[in-house]
Request: fold
Amino acid sequence: MFQGSSSVSLDAKGRMVVPVKHRDVLALQCEGRMTLTRHPHGCLLLFPRPVWESHREKIAAWPMSARVWQRIFLGSASDVEMDSAGRILIPPELRKAAGLSRDVMLLGMGSHFEVWDAVKLQENEAEAIAAGMPEALQDFSF
Reply:
């Protein structure tokens, strides 16, 4: 279960260092093999390969009416591997699609991660907070 946020930087080649707190788990869970894909909210999704393979099968079975969404998720998917320094290369097409600059946020979202441009994430969260709590969460409390 991945959770929490980490501020990371992309290097000149577009590589991102996976935080140490997640490296060992990813090495055990998927031998450092992961899959990146686009998300319509403007971020990237980073899945351990076995988790992605389960989602990929479900997405591939969607009806023809969801073809555009299949293109977003499957057509953008890129397999990546963590190198010996704990880095993954984010392909240029995906960096551009998510508007990633040097400063990036990696958010643990349970079974996977979201990869956000740091400024874009702040703007997205500010908009969500200004809009108020969605109706689906009105009864939620700690």
Notes: The chain has one domain: 2-133. The chain has a mean pLDDT of 95. The chain is about 35% helix and 30% strand. The first helix runs from residue 20 to 30.
